[in-house]
Amino acid sequence: MKRIVAILTLVLTIASVATAQKGRTQFATDMYQAKHEMIIEEMGLTQTQQKQFMPLYEQMEREIYQVNRNARALAREIENKKNPSDRDYEAAASALSNTRLREGEIEAKYFEKFSKILSKKQLFQLKQAEVKFTREMLTKKKRSKQ
Question: Does the pTM exceed 0.85?
């Protein structure tokens, strides 16, 4: 899951840089919408489950996004410094290294919440749907480069 989120974040970041602000916002919105639709379909969520689950899932995504964004911002800050100190490099490296750990902690927190809404099978299907979505996005990205 952590790897999937990292890859998805990378794809979104690359796509964001390549488009204008308005296009970037629309692209991100479309990506998240497509991902959410796939998750709902793959998991076979009922209307009640959708209403309970999707806000939590979106909140989890925002938290994970923020962790990644903060780490990238710190790395950019160090890259732009004229003479970064060893302490600066250590702080940036630590933030980047701890990103996956923080993502895992966030996922674990939400997994508990999800387990109150979803069946065990749906919890498994959630992970499968996330992998499937990432695979499809990477395949589309690869095709668009050809």
Answer: no
Residue with tokens 């923020």: 66
**Residues spanned by the domain of 24:** 2-145
Query: E strands, 100-143, where?
Result: none
Using one digit for the tens of pLDDT, what is the confidence trace for 17-51?
Answer: 555 556 667 877 888 888 999 999 999 999 999 99
101 is written with which tokens?
A: 């750990």
Backbone angles phi, psi at 30, to 5 degrees: -65, -40
3-state helix, strand, coil in the chain (%, to 5): 90, 0, 10
117: Cα within 13 Å, side-chain hemisphere: 21
What is residue 115's three-state secondary structure?
A: coil
pLDDT at 91 over 90: no
DSSP assigned state of 82: S
Beta carbons of 64 and 106 less than 8 angstroms apart: yes
Which residue in the block uniquely carries the two structure tokens 């840089």?
Answer: 17
